Amino acid sequence: MPGADAPPEEQFRAGVRELNSNNRRSALRYLEKAFEAGRTPARAYYLMLAILSGQSFELLGEEDMERLRQVAAFAAGPSGPTGGGGAEAYRTAIRIICELLTLLSRPPETVEADGQILSLFSDIDALPATRRSEVLQHLQMIMYGAARDRLDAWDAAEVAEMRCSGDRQNRALKFFIPDPVGPKQRIAARADVTGAEQATLTAAAALGALGLILALAVLFRGSVGTAVLVLLTCGPGAAAAARYGMERRWLGERLAEENRRHFVLPPGRQPWHPTWGNGAVPFNPAVVPGAYRIAWPTQQYEDFHAGISKVIAHHFNRQFRDGEGLSAWNQHSTGVRLSLANELTIAYGGTNGVSGLEWLVAMHAEETAHAWRNRTLFAYQQQLSAPPQISLAFWVGVVSFATGALIGMGDVLSVDAGTGFWAVALLVVAGVLAGRAGYAVFARRRTHIADVQTFGLRYANELRVWQQWRDYLADRPTDNEMAKWLDYDLRALRRESLDHHGLSHHDVRKYFFVTEANPGCARARNLYGPPRYSSYIIRLFLLTEGGVRQHEWTMDFITARHNREDRRAFRYDAIGSVAVTQISLRGVGELRNIVSPGIGAATRPSDELILGQALRLSLLNSENLDIVVENFHDFIDRLLENPEQLSQLALESSGVSTALRILESVAAEGRGWFAAQRTSLARRLNGASLLMTPDARGLTASPDDLNEGKPQ
After folding, report:
1. Quick one: DSSP state of residue 277?
2. Among 208, 275, 396, 627, which residue carries the largest CB count within 10 Å?
3. Nearest 5°: phi and psi at 650?
4. DSSP code, position 548
């Protein structure tokens, strides 16, 4: 979002984007700055829409009216560019809005007023399609009666055409999928020889050479044949035993390491615990093979690990199918879950959030489940078992070396016991030193080669899947598209409710919607924007002459279908109180329940109890209606924004702020409130001819009006 010092053009574009997203307060802030910086018909038009958008006619305050007067005062001026997108179209739209405001301030029963409103329809019809759609969208709370009935033909046609346009069913879900974080390639541990190992190998070579010289000198003094036999058996035998012995040992250690990753332990020692299936796994970097290590996990790593463990549990649990053994799947996959959680924590925990890694977790969960069903999850055990030929070569080498060594030792000690003893001692010490240092170097290099191959294949696979996700999300809908789809949904539901109750717009004095997230649904939002949900609870309040009719739906936003609806009706004098009160929510998803109102932050018992707000409508029959307001608890980016602005955004985007103002007034004054408010508004509109005959002071027609206001 642009800052306070951003150019007016940037402020204006941001305001239009926010208005298209139904983020009225933010749109007003940007559009007012843009209008004051440079007054053009386009900026005047969009600022007027932002002032009126989603507002109840009776609740337009003096501040709103003063804003409208200031905007309309500059709505006429030198003739600017004409045509569908030029300044003249904006001036015409402003004139129509001003005339509507004046006419609608009169009593709804005034036939002449309705007749004059109907005379404006030809002008509305002549507006460019984009302008006409914007006027209908943002002024629908203002219009009523004959005007609303007349506009229903346009409205119904537009809703039918546009409600599921833009491939909504395939694209809307993508809005709730976070941007996938790119995979990180694990770097295999370096295979360099340390200084200590180099010194140890050098000392072993020197001692071994000295011991071999002494042993050969004694052997050749005794028997040349014996000396040759010892050389032919000990030399190749030692080489074979060392080469294949180190390979066997490395394979065994690698197998043990993989067993630790998969938690394949002897029967009766399986460390699986039922709670681990829900993500409650300990953080243990030691079980992660390769180069990833951290000295001590900080709180940031701990928090990341807790979050990624829940994501892993969710995606692994989703892989289970009916008819399979749940206990076996949990037991066999727990090791992979724990290792994956630790590995991702070490690799990403310092800089990234959890949401962007869901694609990676889902990929590993799917691969693990596929391997488990194909009985290849533990195929590494066979792959890392020493082949028979290696074991055979090792044991042949051991036997050959042992035979030659026994013959040689006996001959050396019998010829010259003193010299033979030192020769054998030197060879033994050299062998021990060379074995330890030599195996460390061999194992490191062998591990490096294996890890380079394994990590390379894994990274290539992750990179391929990551690119597939990026391609899939390339046509993700914008926040403006999500807002328009929701607006079409609300317009369709309003029409459905009127038809159900057999009402016309003449019968409805006022209406408003309030929305909230359906528990357990997916949530997403752009920074500074309103939250969007994959499933909504939508309530429509119709205020008629006789009382309030309330209609409630649960709607799947992806498919635009509602699968549950409730209805109720009550008189105005049945409203006991209306207030936005603090509540506490326990549990998550569909298990979320309102625990009690008014709980303070200091009394919050645990992390499972989340504080929030709700619009509580209390009826005199002790029945309560709670509408939960978004508290942004599930959005990490909330930490980047002003908490007070977030609270206002939640109240505005859900419709709670409008509902609270109307219901409070109706509860206090009853149905007489409508007439009183309209009389007051007519008084404040006295002299409103200024709205329709503005002077041109300060107005300049800008060439940018040809392009301003187009969706960005």
Report:
1. G
2. 627
3. -65, -45
4. E
